[in-house]
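Here is one chain, start to finish.
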Amino acid sequence: MSMMNPRLNNFDLIRLIAALQVVFVHAVGHTEVLDNGPGWLLRMLDMAVLYPGVAVFFVISGFLISKSWERSRDRPAAYFWRRGLRIYPGLVACVVVSLLALGFLGFLDQEALGSGGFWAWLVGQLSFGQFYNPECFREFGVGVVNGALWTISVELQFYVLLPVLYRLAYPVKGPALGRRWILPATFIASFVVFLWVDARTNGPGGFGNAGIVPKVLFVSFAPHWWMFALGIALHRHFDRVRKLIEGRALVFLIAYTAIAFSRVHLLGREGEAAWLFYLGYLPERILLAALTLSAAFTARGLSSRVLGGTDISYGVYIYHFLLINILIELGVMTTAGWVGVVFALSLTAGMLSWFLIEKRALALKSRIPVARSTSAPQVGQPEW
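Its structure:
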């Protein structure tokens, strides 16, 4: 087994690429750009959706957050302190910017401020209900102030559930015989929920006509846990899988692309072969998880050379949807050129968020010392 510095990886760069995939899909797929854009833009969108950035986030999160918990499981306050610093300082600033944008564009009138929906939205944005959007903002942009933030709610649920999983499946003291089935069992259960939710939210009528139960489940951990669980499993068995993935990102990229393209373009959601379309998610996403980890440990140091230690992916992600909505309200988000503007603005917002807020907040992590554990391989860095 080759020796390597486990902290020399490309997670920051992979997260940024995943965030930019989400930016592109939202900037093209949620606006009028395609109506006036060239044909190649639709082909790019079709290719972009094959590489789901959110799923990549969940895999990386499972991989790194499980390590973070193992390092501080005897000091849970340290774990939650670090997780809070990673999410809330940047998020609070984003909410403030959202309020300023809503006020400037005329959406914070007396009626909105006097509605219970607005205050429920504000509390949700600052706590764990980022998926909620009130009626008073349905005319803003695409109808949701910052539609990308639903994943924050899911991440927060992951943060809370991970210690519960470890207590049940991987206890520090006491017998653990027979308990390790819990992670694969929850993986399977989550995958089944995912298939059910996906069939209804992406079926005839789309998400809007999916029904209340699929919509509520979609913003819960249930249909997304299986991707997070893949990250946990890869972390816990990293010594075994490292020799299979290290330096082989291109191989996994080709394999993943082949199976993802085949599932989406050769199969369909309807017809006799529909079951193959849905079951194809399983090998596809397992390969995506392997690709993500392989890319992290292929050409190690690439992230540092490109980004210089900055981690702007979170800021890019939490601001891009708001920026798209602002451009829609200004009446300019109609041609392909404005997709480039969204990229430029999102990257700028990510840089500002990192240097002005996130980096300073993360410097406070040491205020609660983290007890290191020797029971787990030291890989990566504990990030979102």
